[in-house]
Every structure is written in C-alpha cells, then in structure tokens.
Amino acid sequence: MATTFKRRTTNKATAASAAKRTSLVGLPGTKPCFGGATQTSSGLRDLDAILGGGHPLGSAILVEEDRWTNSLASTIVRYWCAEAVAQNHHLLVPALEEESTNPFLSTDDDSATGNRSDIDNLRDSLPRNLHWDKQHAAQGDEHDVKAWEAPLTEATPNQEELDEFDEEEGGDMITELGSSKNINTQQTQQNQSSNIYCHSYDLSGRLSQQLERMGKPNLEQLFHTFPIQQSMDQPFPSRRIYQAILTRLQECRSNNRAVIRLLLHHLDPEILCKVLPLLLAQIRLQHVPVVVLVCLQPWKSTCTKAKTILRRHADVVLQTEGFSGRSHFPPPSELRHLQGLLLPRKVSTATAATAIGGGHYADITVGKRPNSNIFGIKRDRRKLHTVLLHIPPQEQIMDEGRPL
Questions:
Q1: Range with the lowest mean pLDDT among 6-10, 100-104, 276-280?
Q2: Residue 187 lies in a domain
Q3: Where is this region: Disordered (predicted)?
C-alpha cells in the first residue's frame, strides 16, 4: 500500500507572530506569566490577585460604576492611571468635544460623558506614590517628605552603619570608601525601584504635587489627553473615534518601546460597543503592547444591547456596588466595616492571552482563579483594599452593642 509523506515545514506567519511575542518580553513594568503571556500591574495588589497576577497585554477590563457610590470605581481607575505614570507607560485618554456652530448651545457641564473637565478632575486626583517618597528619603531628601510619612522615610540599617562609619573614622581613604559604598547603595536602590512591579500609593496625597516637588515632568505631559471632535450631524461618529485612537496608538508605538495604556473614560456605550471590538482586533493582530481600561456608567444609557456587547468583548468585567443606595435593605451588621462590594462578573483573558502569546494561567489552573465571585471593598483615608467575605468569630459579631 503506497503512502505519501509530507515534510513538515514551519509557517512564516507563525514564525512572524513568535518574533512579535518575544518583542513584548522585557518591557518596563511587565512580567511574564505561565502560558507565554505578559502582564502589567493594575496599581492595586488586591486586584492583581483577583486577575491572576495582573493585567495581561492585549486585554480589556470593564469597570462599571455604581450610581450612588461612584468613588469606588473611580479609585480603581486612579490606581491604574497612577501605575502608568510610575512605570513610564504611555497613558492615552481620549476626550470627546462636540462641535457646535451656535455659541449659545455650547455647555461646560461637568456631567457630560467623556469631556475634558471630567478627565482633568481625574488627572488631578491621582494618588501619591509612596515608593518615590521612600526612595528620596533613602537618598537623603527627608526635607521633601511630609511628617506623616515618617515610617517610610526611615533609613535602612546599612545606610546608618555607613553614615556612622564615615563620621567616626574620617580620613581621605575612608571617606572615598564610604562615598563609593553610598554610590553603590544608591545605584542598587534605583535598580530596585525601577524593577518594582506594583507601586504603593496614598489616596490622601496628590501625584501632581509630588512630581512638581521632585522636579519631574508635569503630570499634563504624562497624562496624554487628546480631543476628538464629535459633530452632531456626523453619520458615523464611531468610525471617527476609532481612527483617531488607532492613529494615536501607532504614534506611541513608533516613538518609544513601552507599554501603552488606553483609558476609555465615561464614553457613550452605543459608540463604544463599535469601537472596542475593532481596537482589540487590531491590537491582538499586530501584537501591540496595549492594555485597555473601560470605565462605564451603565445607568446613563438605556441601550441594553450596547452594554451587553461591551461585557461580551471585555476580558474582565468588574462591577462595584456601594452601600449608600441600600436605604431600604441595609447590609448586615457583619459588613459594617466595608464601604461596598466588588463583583467580578467575568474573568476570562484566554482570548487575549492566546492572541498575544498563549493561555492565561488564571484560566488554565483552577487554583489560580478568583477565590470568590464577590469581594468586599474596604476604603479608608489612604488605601483601598478588597477582602473576602466571611463570617467573623462569634465574639466579634455585635448587634447594637450586644453580642449575638
């Protein structure tokens, strides 16, 4: 019986895609994970744990705000944007501006979705980077750090020993030796600070003031907001928005080798449901190091179909629910220390990870999936934490000042 054998050859397209995947390795602020994917941090360690380690390149996260407590979702967005500034990532935020020939019809209402004033308020509210304060305190810039940051400004034991050694012994040789050691310690600290995957932030501080005091570029130069003119009589507004965003992505990719973070903040769901699938298709086809975060206000749109399309194409869907709107049905007494709930409705990054470079281990290993489908949000003056909901011990359960 005659048989034919065909020599196995490598596909050119497969080799080209493999070369593009290897170019994503080693980008600042990223780390490889199981399955060949590359991740970047969301700025919040608790959220990274829910996502299986971070935000994979080529994926989109949809965050839905609560109507009565929108500060919970906005805090997640602030962490995400602050991490982009800390990692020197390209942060792109499109702002819609309506073209109006009649000056009496123009309005500066802050409630408009995706306008410049809303984005400027978000930029000015980015939290303070505590790792930068610790780094400058270790370098001897304690006068630039506030008094309430004293726990982070304490020098390490190695630095204290070097300082005492220089003061007690003296001499040119010892001074040169101590200065060389100080230089080496500063270099190691700078290398450690540059290799930080997820920074720590203080919500009570402002990143803009910190950058100004440190002599770094202005936050307006790092927070790239570009306007998109939206005409009322334009037949296809989604096409114009898609082309404007795609042009910006190509410019950032050609200028510098860094991760691009695209924030779609409070845009119209009817337009966004057409733009997001096209953007994700181009990003995954060209292997562009882009992560997308969509912040949506679902109560402002009555189009259920558009919101369903967005949830379907997003790799992660997070819904926040505050307790402020529960006047008739308040939360139980066990949740009095929480301000709201975080509901991960969808955590599936297999599509994006497969397109970029393999499967995401959160979808492969059952043990790496989210521990629960509901988390509690604990928000204080300086931090935001997500905790698992559990029944506290019997002696800690109090009802109107009396144990149950």
A1: 100-104
A2: yes
A3: 1-20, 101-122
